[in-house]
Specification:
Oligomer: single chain
Shape: globular
Helix content: 10-25%
Structural class: alpha+beta
Order of helices and strands: HEEHEEEEEEEEEEEEHEEEE
Distance between the termini: 36 Å
Radius of gyration: 19 Å
Number of helices: 3
Length: 260
Amino acid sequence: MPDLASKTVLWKLAAILGAALLLGVIWVSINPFSSLTVDPSCQRIEVHWKGRDGKILGDLGRLKAHIEDSQNKLGRRKLILGMNAGMFLATPQGHPMGLLVVHGQTGCCSSAKHGTLLLNRGRAKSANFYLQPNGVFYVTKGGKAGICTSRDFPKRTDVQFATQSGPMLLINGQINRGRAFSPSSNSLFIRNGVGVRKDGHVVFALSNRPVNFHQLAEYMLRKGCYNALYLDGGVSAMYCPRLGRLCTGSKLGPMLAVIE
C-alpha cells in the first residue's frame, strides 16, 4: 500500500495533469485553429492506412498504437500528432480517393483503381478533391517535405510517403483563386490542411469551428506556408496532446503521423 507521502505526490501530479488538460481544452475553445509546426529534420512524418496485420487502421487511436508498438534504430517511437490525410472513399476499407505512397510503395491494394495518382475528374465532378488545382503532400526518402500540384507530382522520383487531396489552399504563396475560395462563402465545415513553409517546416492545422476554404487558406498563409493542401472537412480529426487535442476520430482512411 502506498504511504501518505506517495499518495500526496500522486494527487499533485494528477492535479497538474488535469490543469494542463483543462488549459488545453480552454485554448481550443477560444482559438479558431489548432496547429503544430514540425521540423522534418527533427521529427519523422509518415502516412499510414493499414497496420502490420494488414487490417485498416481506421482511427487515430489505432494509429497511435501502430506507431508506438514499433521501434526503429533509436528505440521506441512516440506519436506526437495524428491527423486524417487525403480524402478517402466511402468503402468499408476507406480506400484513398487518390494517390497513396507508404514506405516507398505506391497504391494501397491489389486493385489498380485505388491509391494511384488521379488527374481526371471522373464521375465525382463536384467533389472538393477535384477542385483545381488539387495536389500531393509528400515526404522524400531524405526526410524533406513538399507540396505540389498533382500534375507536377510525376517529376518527383524519391518519394517515401505521399497523400493526394484537393484543392490546393496556397500555390506559391498565393491563395487559390477558385470560386470556392470566396471570403464570403457560407460553405462552413470543420476542416484540416497541411502546409509547407519555404524553410521546409511543415504546418498541420485543424479548425476548431466551422470555416470556409478562404479562412483556412488565410490561416495557413499567416503561419508562413508557401504551399498548402486541403485534406478534408466534416470528418477532420487531430490527436495532439501538446495542443490539448485527444480526439481519435472514427472511420478514417489514410492518416498522417508525426513521430519522435
